UniProtKB/TrEMBL annotation:
<dbReference type="InterPro" id="IPR027417">
    <property type="entry name" value="P-loop_NTPase"/>
</dbReference>
<protein>
    <submittedName>
        <fullName>ATPase involved in chromosome partitioning</fullName>
    </submittedName>
</protein>
<dbReference type="InterPro" id="IPR050445">
    <property type="entry name" value="Bact_polysacc_biosynth/exp"/>
</dbReference>
<dbReference type="GO" id="GO:0005886">
    <property type="term" value="C:plasma membrane"/>
</dbReference>
<dbReference type="GO" id="GO:0004713">
    <property type="term" value="F:protein tyrosine kinase activity"/>
</dbReference>
Length: 220
């Protein structure tokens, strides 16, 4: 939790700008924004939860839900230090009503829908079917929440992000600075745009190291 709070606090201004470009002020319509990356570990979960935390202080937390649409490497529980009684799999596999799987994060008040603990090697997950279920979940969430943030796996090794992308209004590709090549990012963006031509797409350059004091950048 400390790490995620630190990220939210140190990027307040950037997250505020991101929020203004993703969600239209003049509309009360429910908006779903997906976060993904090219490779593992670029900072997708940190940015998704960082934005949810930062938005909770600007809007009614009741209007925000963060969905862990990442069945490959779930980490919401660990990052938020929460143990929700139910996970999204119970909605998919055991017909648990969606309301019961939504968990209010005590410290911030927004809701999360988690994918539980790491189930790596768990052959029981039918990824294809689960991805179809996300469509229904998203449709239901749109009726209740103004702001929907989805954490999805990296787009190069998996199809998940491209499939979920068909259902969202915006996609943010998180790029780890000095690591992911420009060509790879272009390829990821193209892949997502092919899935959904309507969605707004953008990138976040994450983990950028400032080599000179931050204040001086505005003079460059
Ligand atoms: N802006 C940042 N500054 C410092 N550390 C960061 C930043 N963003 C992410 N990290 C760190 O990088 C690591 C990976 O971040 P995170 O788990 O958010 O990535 P991810 O893209 O969700 O990974 P995965 O592909 O496993 O889902 C974590 O240890 C996180 O604390
Ligand atoms: Mg993650």
């Amino acid at each position: 939790m400390r790490m995620i709070e630190q990220i939210a606090a140190s990027f307040t201004e950037e997250l505020y700008r991101l929020e203004s470009s993703l969600f239209r002020k003049d509309s009360e319509q429910s908006t779903a924004v997906q976060f993904t990356s090219s490779h593992f570990g670029e900072g997708v979960t940190s940015m998704t939860l960082g934005l949810a935390i930062s938005m909770s202080s600007l809007h009614s937390p009741q209007s925000i839900v963060a969905v862990e649409a990442n069945m490959r490497k779930p980490s919401f529980q660990e990052y938020l230090e929460i143990v929700p009684p139910h996970s999204i799999f119970e909605v998919f596999e055991e017909n648990l009503p969606l309301d019961q799987a939504l968990y209010e994060v005590p410290k911030f008040g927004f809701r999360v829908l988690t994918a539980g603990q790491v189930r790596e090697g768990d052959k029981k997950i039918d990824y294809g079917l689960s991805l179809q279920h996300f469509r229904d979940v998203l449709r239901k969430l749109r009726q209740e929440y103004r702001y929907i943030l989805l954490d999805t796996p990296p787009a190069v090794p998996f199809m998940d992000a491209s499939i979920i992308c068909k259902e969202v209004d915006g996609v943010v590709v998180v790029v780890e600075a000095d690591l992911t090549r420009y060509e790879v990012v272009s390829h990821t963006l193209e892949k997502l745009r092919t899935s959904n031509r309507e969605a707004l797409t953008g990138t976040i350059l994450n983990k950028r190291e400032l080599r000179i004091p931050k204040l001086l950048y505005r003079f460059l």
